[in-house]
Design a protein that fits this description.
The chain is mainly β. 4% of the residues lie in helices and 42% in strands.
């Protein structure tokens, strides 16, 4: 879809990505609330997906395991099921007709932990090894985006098909770009799925670690990186990657806008927890991953030679980040054009690929965001300033 703006400025909008789900509290709508706990320890289970299967009625439990699910019983089929699901736990199925309605208390729902069956990863001794390989999509200045708006139900997801060369691949880092976020902060969950659902839709969750992959998006965040290494995520073919809304902090309305990409492999949406996946466009969200791919030794050597030739041709800029005469380590350094992000080392040093006129952003919690416009010099030191 094309939207015509001022002065005939064309904006390509992934219009179908607009996830709009407003609960209209009418007569007869009830608050079916509760608390989800571990059946063995009694501890609350956070971020459980709770909803009526494929009906667009769903929510997510909070940090204390508490949830509120609003619907009208007489508007839902009597055989409908409320499904509770969480990583590391067996699913809980409760018929809508049996869902308790208590006004002043939170009924307890117990979920039983399951034994996590890790996929066996075979390490070859046939002259194969891992090489660094990037996959996914980036926005290169195109006005393509997808967004969550208004009161989308918790558990709503935006997923994109990631095309990956077949072979054993470890997922290491995930990046997405924020165009706009009016909320103080948002809590999202990263989900990795097989495309084994109906007509190639997301279905089986590939995260076998039993741990949620959580990321907080702050109002000032532009490029967000998520470390995937602790979760031992391996894939062998194409897969689906989604971002799921868990919590909105602050009083501002939800309006998170994320970068899209012109690649045409397909994106999907889910309005709420336990909802139905829908294909919405053949374009993609700008989800980008750093991975390691296992290849034969000869292929690895050819790849490394190509990368070495590329690096010799690429111009870089380097320097130090300082404040008060001291080096500042852990500063995120991002090239706005390429979206590449590096982090200053323990001596405050950075090196990043950049061309003349590129804008480089320097970000760290507690400091002001500093911007460098690249000139002809190959080095530049940055004086950081306190955010106070």
């Amino acid at each position: 879809m094309e939207v015509l703006g001022h002065h005939s400025f064309k904006v390509r909008l992934l219009a179908s990505f607009i996830l709009l789900f407003v609960f209209k509290f009418g007569v007869g709508q009830k608050d079916y609330k509760g608390k989800v706990v571990d059946s063995k320890t009694g501890e609350p289970i956070p971020y459980v997906n709770i909803g009526i299967v494929e009906k667009g009625i769903g929510t997510v439990s909070d940090e204390e395991g508490l949830f509120h699910l609003y619907f009208q019983k007489n508007k839902v089929e009597s055989e409908a099921i409320i499904l509770f699901s969480a990583l590391g736990y067996g699913s809980l199925n409760i018929p809508v007709a049996e869902m308790p309605l208590v006004y002043n208390e939170y009924p307890v729902f117990k979920m039983t932990p399951t034994r996590v069956e890790l996929d066996e990863v075979v390490v070859s001794n046939k002259g194969e090894r891992f090489i660094q390989n990037t996959i996914g999509y980036k926005n290169s200045g195109q006005r393509i985006f997808g967004y969550w708006k208004d009161q989308i139900a918790l558990g709503g997801e935006l997923a994109t098909r990631i095309i990956a060369k077949s072979g054993l691949r470890r997922l290491e880092r995930f990046q997405f770009e924020v165009f706009h976020n009016p909320s103080d902060s948002l809590l999202l969950r990263v989900n990795i799925y097989k495309d084994d659902g109906t007509m190639g839709r997301p279905k089986t969750n590939l995260n076998k670690s039993g741990e949620n992959i959580l990321v907080t998006v702050k109002k000032t965040d532009k490029i967000v990186w998520v470390d995937l290494k602790p979760y031992d995520l391996y894939v062998r073919n194409d897969f689906m990657l989604s971002l799921e809304l868990l919590t909105v902090y602050g009083n501002e309305e939800l309006g998170l806008i994320l970068a899209g990409a012109p690649d045409k492999y397909g994106s999907y949406r889910k309005y709420a927890s336990q909802g139905k996946w829908e294909r919405i466009t053949d374009q993609n969200m700008a989800y980008y991953l750093e991975t390691s791919l296992m290849v034969p030794e000869k292929v690895a050597q050819r790849f490394e030679k190509r990368e070495l030739r590329k690096r010799k041709k690429i111009r870089t800029i380097s320097g130090f980040t300082l404040m008060g005469g001291r080096m500042v380590q852990g500063v995120e350094v991002t090239n706005k054009r390429t979206k590449e992000t590096v982090v200053t080392d323990d001596k405050g040093r950075y090196t990043i690929a950049a061309n003349t006129n590129d804008e480089i952003f320097f970000r760290k919690e507690g400091y002001q965001v500093m911007v460098l416009k690249v000139g002809d010099k190959p080095t530049a030191n940055i004086m950081m300033k306190s955010a106070r």
